[in-house]
Amino acid sequence: MAVSAAASAREILTRLHDVMASRAPAQSKLNSVVNIIGEALDSEVCSIYLLREGVLELYATRGLAQEAVHVTKLALGEGLVGTIAANIETLNLDEAAAHPDFAYRPETGEEAFHSFAGVPIIRKERAVGVLAVQHAEPRRYHEVEIEALQTVAMVLSELIANAGLIDPGEAAARPLATGAVRIPGFKLVDGMARGQAVFHQPRVVIEHTVAEDIEAERHRVYAAFDKMREQIDRMASQAEFGVGGEHDEVLAMYKMFAYDEGWSRRINEAIDSGLTAEAAIERVQQRTRMRMREIDDPLLRDRMHDLEDLSNRLIRIVSGQLGTAAQLGLRNDSILIARNLGPAELLEYDRRRLKGVVLEEGSLTSHVVIVARAMGVPVLGRARDVRRQVAEGDLLLLDVTEESVTVRPSAAMEEAFEARLALTQKRRAAFAALRDQAPVTKDGHRVTVMVNAGLRDDLGALDLTGADGIGLFRTEFQFLVSATLPQRETQRRLYKDVLDAAGERPVTFRTVDVGGDKALPYLNHDEDGEEENPAMGWRALRLALERDGLMKAQARALLEAGAGRVLSIMFPMVSEPWEFDEAQAIFEAQRAWLAARGRKMPTEIRYGAMLEVPALAEVLDLLLPRLDFLSIGTNDLTQFLFAADRAHPKLALRYDWLGPSILRFLKRVVDQAKAADVPVAVCGEMGGRPLEAMALIGLGIDRLSITPASVGPLKAMLRSLDRGALIPEMAKLLAQPPESLRKSLEAWASEHSVELA
Ligand code: PEP
Ligand code: MG
Prior knowledge:
There is one protein chain. By secondary structure, this protein is of the alpha/beta class. The protein is 44% helix and 16% strand. It has an eight-stranded mixed sheet. Helix 25 (690-698) packs across helix 26 (711-719). The longest helix has 24 residues, at 214-237. Phosphoenolpyruvate (PEP) binds next to strand 16 and helix 23.
């Protein structure tokens, strides 16, 4: 027997290399393979089973009866071989017949053999076959022999793929699911979609497994490790890291693994056994996966995800396949799978083919979710383990309304899904029918319902929903989708198109709000050092006032686009009144400059501030006299009020918008603005949720700017609401908050037949 796993595998691989390079037909190659392995491991029997149409068929054997070849077949999960494939596990038994899954096949003549060891042959994380050895003597195979078998199985997967022997149906040979799986998640953007699973960071399919030159492979791995460590270090030191939405905890893990000596040593050992760099990384990952499967510890499983991520990253670096799925292009209706995404990354996708997104993380008010909402793409968040349970190309039924995604559905599931889809479409049609109905409460109070927008494609939403205007146009979306800073003329054209589309309806342009989780690749956000906390950092108005070139260009573009009309400008993240003054002064200077040159001006410029930073509320009395309007951005406001990162998945559900602290805070602001006769609106995501919107109306708010898909449900809510009865009820609830304000409001809505979609 060989002395080490590496030496043992290397000897076999050297011989397999010649077989693979030969022009012999596939069957004779497999026949040679079983002989080589049997001899090298001194095993009387060596057999290869391949998955064909969902069944494992004996394809080649040394030692078992040759008549059994292509005759012996085992279903997934049947017998030892079926169990290995179904669970993607290794079995090493001194007495095969004693195992509970043993299934006797008389045609093979295997009763003569006692010991048995088998490993799965894996392709794209699915078992496509099984490699097994048997021995007459009852003995357990040594660890080194098992390792050698596993290494050989990797090479075999290349051989059978090249020979066209991979079952095209690739029937569900998955461990966690020999059929459909339903993965629960959390509703981020409501909707339903059907499509093929596409990984944002595609898995690399390994083409070559046997090394030609071991030292060269070793160098490739070293170089890839260096590059990966550099990337991780850079991520850790960059404020922009927030773009990907990942968090410090993950980063710390990445860093630990990236520098883990044990990991690189194991990869090196796999290279010693004769594998290419890619195959060695994958081989180590497969082994870790198999080991982890035996340990039932959720914490370790999370760590496993991190290592899996890094392992994929390393393979992508080593193979030079670095593009995201967006860069490769979507070919079919697709559902994107990722741990997390940045808003700019999402915007790179082809909107005609992108039908849905499933994230392992994600939170309601992160910008990627806002962008998805604007794109009309449903998003399921916090779908644990999704990247493990789904394979590229799997059919997915995404049902965010039901908070789940179904992977590889059965025909019955598809049917049920289609029926539900038809139902929601009917409901949507009912909401669309409210398009021409005014948002008036049952007791006759007219509410102004506007939409949030940011992309050119959003403009159709105005007519489709019958909204009163655009209450928040997020101008930074144009900056996010662009690879370079948009020129003034490009900006002007977009703003003009927006105003043209809106016609008589008002549009409020918010000046660029970049930074935080909306970093721009072409803008150096951290020239003054690292930002530990970008959401509270150099962003929005703070950045714009300092980089006033950007603000001036935007002011000019807006003023020119608004010639001859009313132009409403709103500044984000105003924290103190002087910031508003300075921003307004930039616009006024541009106006004066244009006026001096006789250019046509807007008929009126209305300036407003966003209230997103709690400190502003304390000096609102100073600012209100200077404002034409106020708009409350509840997304940022809540993150600052609770000191809870809006993009942090763990905090996403911790604080309720219907808690007394937010509602009391809002009530104070609304009362103050009303007393000063300054119109006040809410433009955060909160206003798009019927129950939350009801609470806002109860606080006296009568202007909302929301995501277009919510306009129908909001109108339905308003038209069934007795505002006069709600206002005193809200006052009562805020004075003496019950244990759950949400539950009390739900109960009130139900008693008063308020329609909450
Ligand atoms: C908000 O913070 O509530 C808001 C509307 O702005 P954004 O979500 O773009 O930060
Ligand atoms: Mg904001």
